[in-house]
Amino acid sequence: MKKWMKIVLILVVGTCLVGSYWWSQWKHPQPKWSDLQYSFTPGENHYTNTEVVNKLLIQKWAANPNAPKEKLVLSKLESMLSQDAMLEQAEVYVTVDGQLRAELTQKQPWARVVDSTRAYYIDRRGVTMPLSGLHTARVPLVTGEINPQTIKACHELLSFARQNKVLREQLIGVHIEKNAQFTLALATVDYQVHLGDLSDLEGKMARFVAINNKLAQDTVPARYKKIDLSFDHQAIGIK
Fold this sequence. Notes:
The chain has 239 residues and is of the alpha/beta class. It is 36% helix and 25% strand. About 5% of the residues have low confidence.
């Protein structure tokens, strides 16, 4: 008798589990990738939008005939979305009520690079980012000797500028010269600021503030084309 009771109990439990599964599938059917709902990280300018992102996803899905259609693989969707050149990150998940959602984080442009062939942004990670037809970022313009090495050094300079009050508020241009020498354009002065290499940036900016304050106090202001900070412990005005 006990044996039959165990068998019946197993059958009842199994039936309940199967029933619960089919009930959940009926109540919350497996979402399709075409049902994906997008949201962007709040507070960012939209260099892309849901229409552009969805078009990319359709193209990527069509280009992958072996990608699962019935059973969604969230990591696959995330990988496809992350190929959008405007996006830094994509997180895809299914809510408790069966809705398929994607939270998208856009890249944050730090500078606009212009060379002889094209223009593009570099973002906060130093990664290239195309210009957007939806929004133009107000960021410093980078010109001069453009190559992977100098762009990497420029990203180091931009990282410093983000932490420096003067550069964060005033930097409008970076010109890269030969041998990775940097000259800056600032919004509030009519002369260039030559840094040289990126050594001792804190000291160079302290010298710039000191000489700029002195020039502002002169009753007869000197007309300089450039302030050279590339020499140790010196700030040299060039007329």
